[in-house]
C-alpha cells in the first residue's frame, strides 16, 4: 500500500463515509459456492452518495499484467491511499480478463473502503453475542475454517469443470477450500492442460 505523507483528513472523511454507507445488499448468487455476493454495480450505487458527502473519490485501473490499482482520494486535501491487487485469469482471452478485473474491482473496493458485505446471519450475532468485526474477518479468512477440497466429492468435480471452462481460478478456489499438495498439483495440471489446448 502507498499513501500520502499524511492521511489525517482522509481518515476523518472515511469515518464520515462509514457512518453513512451502511450494509451493502448481496444481489447475486454464485452457483459454484452456493453463496450470495454484491455485484459491482450494486456496490457503486451504494457508495456513490456517501463518498460524495464525505469528500472522497476513487479510481481503479489495470496495472501491469493481471493487476488492478485502486486509489482512494480526499478531494480537499489531496491525501490518498493506493493499493494494488493481482490475480491470474485462467485463460488469456478478453472474457476471462474482464471477469478477473470485475472481481478485483469489487473486492478491492470492499477492502479499501471497509465495506460491510456480510450476509444476514439470521440473528445469530444477537443470540450468541456480538462479534468484533475485525475478529470475524480474521476468523472467516483463516485457513483452519475452510473445508478440505476432497477429490471424491461433487464440489471437486464442479471445481474441475469450472477450471476447464475458465470461470474460476485456483486462487479463487483456495479462498474457499484448503488444498493439499496432491489436489493443488492436479488442479494446476488441469489448468496447464486447458491453457495448452487453447
| Helix and strand composition category | alpha+beta
- Tell me the overall shape: elongated
Cα Rg:
19 Å
Count helical runs: 8
Tell me about the largest β-sheet: 4 strands, antiparallel
Rounded to the nearest angstrom, the distance between the terminal CA atoms is: 35 Å
Percent of residues in beta strands?
Answer: 15-25%
Write the element-wise H/E pattern from the N-terminal end onward: EHEEHEEEHHHHHH
Number of strands: 6
- Count of domain modules: 2
Share of helix, binned: 40-55%
Low-confidence spans:
120-144
The side-by-side strand order for the widest beta sheet comes to 1-6-5-4
Average pLDDT rating: 82
Walk me through the structure.
The protein is an alpha+beta fold and 198 residues long. The protein folds into two domains: 2-119, no CATH class; 146-197, no CATH class. The chain has helices spanning 8-21, 40-54, 94-113, 124-128, 133-141, 154-165, 170-176, 181-197, and strands spanning 2-3, 28-30, 35-37, 56-63, 67-74, 80-86. A four-stranded antiparallel beta sheet has the order 1-6-5-4. Strands 2-3 form a two-stranded antiparallel sheet. Mean pLDDT is 82; it is low at 120-144.
Amino acid at each position: 500500500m502507498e499513501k500520502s505523507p499524511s492521511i489525517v483528513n482522509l481518515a476523518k472523511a472515511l469515518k464520515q463515509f462509514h457512518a453513512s454507507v451502511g450494509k451493502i445488499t448481496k444481489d447475486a448468487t454464485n452457483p459454484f459456492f452456493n453463496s450470495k455476493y454484491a455485484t459491482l454495480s450494486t456496490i457503486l450505487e451504494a457508495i456513490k452518495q456517501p463518498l460524495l458527502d464525505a469528500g472522497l473519490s476513487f479510481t481503479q485501473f489495470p496495472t501491469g499484467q493481471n493487476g488492478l490499482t485502486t486509489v482512494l482520494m480526499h478531494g480537499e486535501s489531496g491525501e490518498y491511499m493506493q493499493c494494488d491487487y493481482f490475480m491470474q485469469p485462467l485463460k488469456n482471452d478478453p472474457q476471462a480478463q474482464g471477469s478477473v478485473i470485475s472481481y478485483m474491482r469489487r473486492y478491492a473496493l470492499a477492502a479499501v473502503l471497509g465495506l460491510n458485505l456480510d450476509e444476514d446471519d439470521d440473528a445469530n450475532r444477537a443470540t450468541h453475542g456480538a462479534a468484533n468485526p475485525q475478529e470475524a474477518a480474521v476468523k472467516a479468512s483463516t485457513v483452519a475454517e475452510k473445508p478440505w477440497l476432497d477429490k471424491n466429492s461433487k464440489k471437486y468435480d464442479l471445481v474441475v469443470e469450472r477450471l476447464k471452462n475458465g470461470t474460476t481460478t485456483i486462487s479463487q478456489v483456495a479462498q474457499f477450500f484448503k488444498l493439499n499438495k496432491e489436489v493443488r498439483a492436479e488442479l494446476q495440471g488441469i489448468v496447464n492442460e486447458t491453457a495448452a489446448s487453447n
